[in-house]
Structures are given as structure tokens and as C-alpha cells.
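Researcher: Here's a chain I'd like modeled. Treat it as a single chain, no partners, no ligands.
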Amino acid sequence: MTAAGPINILKPVPCLILDNEDDEFLLGDDVLKALGIDIERQLELLATPSGDDGDDEEEVPEMSAGDNDAEAIRQAVEAMIQRALDEGFPVDKVERLRTIVYAHDVWRLVLGDDPPAKVEPMRIRMKTSCRPYKAKARKYAPEYQAFLESFNALLVKLGWRGGGEFRQTVDYKPFNAQTEPMAGLMPNLHVDLENVRSSNHFGLFDFIKGYWQLPLAKECQELLSYMTHRKIYTPKRVPQGSADAALYFQPTIERCFAALLYKHLLVWIDDLLLYAADINAYLDKLQEMLELTAKFGFKLSVAKSCVYKQEVKWCGKVINGEGVKHDAERIQALRSMPYPTNAGELQQFLCSTNWMRDSIVDYARLARPLQDTLDKVMATASRRTKHAATGIPIALTVQECAAYDAVKQTLADAATLAFPKPDAEMVLLTDASDIGWSVIVTQVSSWKSDADIQDQQHELLICLGGTRPAPTVVVKRVTLRRQRDDDPSGGPTTTSSGRPPVRPSSDGNLVWPTVEELQKAQQRHIVDRPQGLTRSHVGLLCSGERIWIPAPESSLVQRLLVIAHCGAQGHRGREALMNVVNRRFLIRNLPPMVKTFLGGCLMCQHVKGGKVVMRPWTETFRCNERNGALHWDYLHLGESFGAMQYLLVLKDDATHFCELVPCAVPTAAVTAEAILDWQSRYGVPRVWISDQGTHFKNQVVAERMNRDIVQVLRAMCLEAKVDIRDWVHFVPVVQSNLNHTPVPSLASKAPVELFCVLPAASPLDFGFNSEDNTFLEMGTTSRQIEAKLALLRARVQEMHKRVQVARSEQTRRNQKAQRGARVANFDVGDYVLRSRVDQKHNDKLLVTWIGPYQIVGTDEHSFRVQHLVTGAESDVHASRLKFYADASFEVTEEIREHVAAQGIVLTVAELKEHRWNSAKRCYEILVGWKGLEPIEDSWESLSSLYKDIPVMVKQYVAATNEVQLHVTLEQL
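Model: Modeled as a single isolated chain. C-alpha cells:
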């Protein structure tokens, strides 16, 4: 099987089998000729110059070393300035631009014999187990030999040569496998491009053969030597292809241009993007950038650079001040691709489109059939490389062809990604199922409160999605959901699944650092030591009297923090810990280490923070349908001139329409009769909600109306100068007042308008002529009546829609008013601490937060928690709980002992006997505890038991005949 398809060899041929990692066959000239392949003829055709060398970079005319003369560069710079004028550069500022670009010798047409850049050379670290690798000499065609000889001769003389038919590549894969990779991070362009927001002036600059401008450390040059057919060459500059080249190049350039980075400059390897909001600032930053370029000895390609554009194409994206979109030429090239015939072509198509998926909605679902096909055919391959995939033929089905066309169509609809605006409303839209998930983030510059969310003017920020739930996705969701209650920033934090020790200072595994261990730690990081250190009398590197501790020695730093924070140090706060450590040790980046350490200290969570965690208001039950939910509650109004003392309040959830029923006693019979009367007039509500019971478990919607009723009744009785016991006669007036008064929460509509579709009565109606009122003619035929009713329903629905928006706005304003509150988002199985705030009597020395407890159930407003020792369960409001650990926390005997040491609230089963304790000089009673074995009975002092269970103690003492015990109890 070959990339072109299967071939058949008609007769057996001898083979030589060699140990090699590649799964390839090398065929001799006789076998190739038997297959109809003439290698010599192919080489003749290859040697013939062609107009296309397959290079996707901008074509640069081949120039000799003499082309870097001043006149050639001057002509190229003038051409660059002219291109800037063609792009809209202001004519009145062209002389200043010309002065800036000519101020420094930084422009080159080809790389000549300039010295390397003035930066720290690249150093390579080899693995401890590496062995020298000897390359084998390869055979080359005569044309290749001639190219290698001339090319490497120029490398020795000048350093590089542009153009030509061939390119030299060095196979560094065996060497890279034995290299210790350099730690580094490439920029996140999606995030960094936000800095370009509102910029209208851009410049693009390209280092000429950027890697070759950087020096290679002398001790590492021999490691990167390479062999041609005649010689071995040793580079003195950084060659592209070595393992550390990119991660060395990027931070080196960032350090050189740090003054401009992320403010007016973005860097991606050897491509620079300069930007500014106005032309004067742009010219100032251009001058500063060229000064830094000259200072560090870099050379820019005058042919590939552009000093001015109003919209640029950088890293495959089209960028302007309004947003980022993908290159139209790249999109058109992808859309013109035919159906793939092998797995390599399909893999290339998916990789290319996946790079653009952040601006393509629903990409994951559309590409799913193609990805499944690729995974299926690549399952039999030894590697997932493009070379291996190219040899696997495929034929797409009708469904797969439809998916291929659908993905190409979405490329044409790819949206422009806007830059986040600080004053815009950000909208997060999420969806998930058992087969996939999606997240879309947009922004709305001008939010319209009277429009639905789909009618707002959205600008796309990013869209993400996937078709398979993966562990990495789950981790991200947990990170976003988890929120530590003691973190004032309220930011997302991750939780460790392991169990740190509760008392690390007394843990048997804690090893105290020694002088020898400190010396070894310093020696391992001797190259990263700070400046100005001196040796102490014991051989330790110190800064003054402080011992230097390398920050990467995380285990050593962790143990030092344990010693300085736990045990006798009493778990003091952050500043106390910082001061203790800084007095004795010098540790870089200590504050974030201390913050992480304190965040994981399980003991601190019991004593830090207030007694109650502020929680936001819960999401109240909402019903947007008329007569969809009915609330009722009893309001006690006191005595009247009759038997009536209570008022039953019935209220519709959506429209606030109410009915008031006076009654003598609040019984179920009265409630049932009132609800039946409601149903006979308006129909059966689907949801019934009683406002009786503990309020943090029950809705309190009717309570809000009760306040209005009491307020209105007080005012009416006072204004009418009647006795307050005459309140029964005012009930119909109050009901009318509540139902006919427009309120802001209903979009300035009255409840009777929304519920009964009747006009609201007003005391101001006397000023209008009732004869001028118009009436709705319903018609005479059934069709006319149905049409009028349909119109009436549509208008009612539109009115309810406006009310729904108004209520949502009110909820949003309420939530803004309590931003300091933190959302409780515990899961069943999580471990939490419980506050002692509700205990009436407790010792001041007891910890504020006890536990941990495990959550075994959730309610709308509370959580059901279980004690880890007794197993007792209780309902606790979220404000009395704070997060301790997730469900993976391991409960050991140490944890149970830790919980028991805090004091357990147990129920007394019986008081068995008493005694006089002469040592403590007090009476003690033997207590039998409910849920515990008799062997666990304990002697408790009479005074402490009397505080907690006075009734049982009195009953026990009354049943005894000991006079002194009676006297002691009376003295308490």
C-alpha cells in the first residue's frame, strides 16, 4: 500500500530487514523499474526550474550578499513608506515616519554577516541518561549535493541565504528525545488580542530568519552539529527544529520588548504586531520599538514588514479595532477542498477547521460524523501522524459527505469575534446533555429592558462546545462552580481530592529540615540564586541574616510553613505567617504560596470568618401564567365587633390578584371553602402554595401583601375616625384597592387588568365622560366572535409578557443590591462546617465552625447534614454552612476524633446515678446517651447538666432522698 494506492509485485524479490522505528519499505532501482518508475527521469524533471516551489510564505527574490548595500535597502524602505501611504497613512506626517524608519540600522533584505543579537544565548540541558547519537551518512542526488555544498558554504560565510529551489532541513528528532525540555508558555492569542480593542493604527514586522539571529551557547554548539554527504557542520546560532528553540525564542523577544508588550505590542515568535488608538501615539511607539530593536541588535525584513495598516492579517486572523475574524482567503481555500480520499486529507481538513471553531456555532455537532470516521480508520494505524494517515484510503458515505458540506458552509458564516467592552452587559448562554455541551458568551452594548434576550443586539465573544463529556470538561465545571466561603474575592478555586492532615505539625510524617538538606536544596538551584548572597559560617547562602530557600523546593517550603503556622504558632493569619517566615528566610513569590497554604489548612476553617456566611436571596418560585399558582396565608388582625379575628389572603402569583376572606378561626375548613369559591369563579390553579410553616423553607409571597393590607387598614381606620375593631367593614375596600392599583412590579398594570382583563377603576374617573367610552363589538357569528377572542388573547399575552420582563428586571435589581452575598452551591456528598451561632449557651473558647458534617440531602432553602460520629441528621440553613471538602474527602479515624474533640450535641437518654467528686468539689451525674452504648456513659457535673437540661435534672433530684443534693440544686 502506498500513498497513491496499492501496488502488486509480480515476482518475489529479496529483502533486507533492519531494526528501525519507521514503518516504511525502501525499494531498489530494479524493483522500481519493474513497477514502471524511472528515478533518473524523475530527478531530471525535478532539476528543471519551476515557477512554484511549494512555499506558502511570501516570495522574496534571491539576493546575494551585495544586495544588503545601503542603496538597495533605501529603495526597499521607500517602497515600504509608499505602501503605508497607499494604506491611508496621513500625508502630513510622512516626514516624521521617514525620520523614524531611517533612524536606526535595523533593515535588511537578506541576512548577512551581522553579529548575533545581544541577548542571553540558548543553553540546552540533556537528560541524565542520554547517550551520544551518531547520524548515518545519507545518499543524495547530484542536484541535492550541489545545493548542500553551496548552501552550507554560505552558512559558514554569512549565516543564511534566501530563495532557491531547495530547503535544507535537519532531523533533530533523535537529539530532541534526549533533551530536557525547557519550561515555558506560549501566549494565548485569543486573550491577548483583547488588548487591541479600539486601536485603528497597526504595523507588522518580521525578523529576517529570526532563529538564526539568536546566539547559541558555546558549550551547546557541538550538540547540534549535523552531517551532509561530505562534512559535519556545527551551528553557532539557534537552529529551528531543536526542542527548546521556540520556547527560548518567545520569552527572549518578550523580555527585550517588555516596555511595549501587551500595551502596544504583541509577539508571536518572530512576528510583531504594533498597535495604537491614534496616529501620534502609534508613531511614538514605532520609534520606541525600533530603538529597542537596534539596542538588542535585531534585524527586520524590509520586504516582509509593513509600517502602517488600518486592518492587518496576523497569525491567520484579520484584526481591526472592532474585532477579530478569520482570513477570507483561508476560508475560501478550505471551502474549495474536494472530498478527502485518504485519512490524511480528512485529518488536515478537521485540524484546519478546528482552529477556527471559536467563531463557529455548533461546530462540534456538525463535525462529529467526520471525527468518528477519522477515529475509526486511525484505530488500526500505529501512529496518528499525517504521514501514517495519508496511506489509509477512505470513501465518505452520503451522510458523511453531507456533514463535510455542512462544515464548509459554516466556515462562510463564521462570525467576527468582538472585543470585550467594560461597560457592556455580558451574556452567558449554556446548554448540556448526555451527549454534548456548549457555551456561548456574548455582549450587549445597549441593553433594552423591554426586549427579550433573543431580541437584543448581541456581539459574539466566544463559543465553545463538545460532543463527548470528557474529564477535563468536568474539572473545569467544578472549578467554576466551587467557591470558597473564606475567599473575599469570590473567585473560583479548585479543591483537592486528597486529604491533607488536620494537624500537620503533629503528623508523624513531618520531617524537620536540617542544615544539610538546606545546603542540598540551594545547590540544586545554584544558577537561579539571587544577587548579593553571602556564605554563613555553616555554609548556607544568606541575604543578611535570612537563609535563601529556592522557591521550586515546594516540599521544603511547605514544611517551613507548617512549622511557622501550626502547633504553638496558633494558626494565626496571613500577615503573621508572612512576618514569621520573612524574618528567617528569603523565599521568592512567598505571598501566593502562603495564600494557597492557608486555603488548604483544615484547622483554620474552624476558627476563621464570622458566625454566619451571607447568602443571596433564593430564587423565588415564579409563575408567569394567569391563575397558574395560588398562594394563601392567614393574617391575624385582632378582635372586631363580632367573631372575626383573622383574614385569609388568597393571591395569584403571576398577576398579584387577591381575594380577602374574614373568618373567626384559621381552620382547614375555612381554607377549603375559600379555595372552592376561587375555583368556581376562575378555575383550578395548577400549583397551591401555603405560606404557613418555617419561613426559610416556605415561600413568603403572601407575606408581602399582608404588609400592604395592614398598612391600608391602619390608614383607613385612622382617616375614617372609627375604632380599629371595625376593620371587617373595610375588607372589600381594601381588596378593591389592592386589585385596582397599578404597581411598578407589574409594568404599571393593575392586577385586575392582568387577571380579569377588566379596566382598573380609579377615583379620578369622575373627570371623564362615561358616555364617550367605546365598547368592543364581538360580532354576531361564531367566526367573528372567535376572531375577537383571539385578538383579545393576543393582547393579554402581550401585556403578560411585558409584566414578565418587568419582574425579571426587579429581580436583577434586587440581586445587584446584595452582591456581597455568596451563593451556596453544595452537592450531596460534600463536607461542610456548621456555625454555632444558633446555640444559646456555649463557651467562648469553643470554635465557631464545627464539623465537618456531610450533606445528605438538599431542599430549596436548606441542606440536610449528617454528623460524622453520631449519624444524627438535621436541616440547616445555607447561611450556617461553609464549604470544607468535596465528596472525595476520606473520613478516617483521625477525622472522627477531630470532630469528637469539638464537642458533640448528644441527646440524654436517662440520668442513672449521682456521686460527690471530692477532687472537683461538686456533684456529678452518670448520663446515658441516646444512640451510644452503656460503656460510653459519662459522669457530668450537676451545674453543666442543669444549664442544658434543667427539667430532667429537677425530675431526677426530686426522685432522690439526698438532702444535700437538693440544697446544691437550689443554689444553682
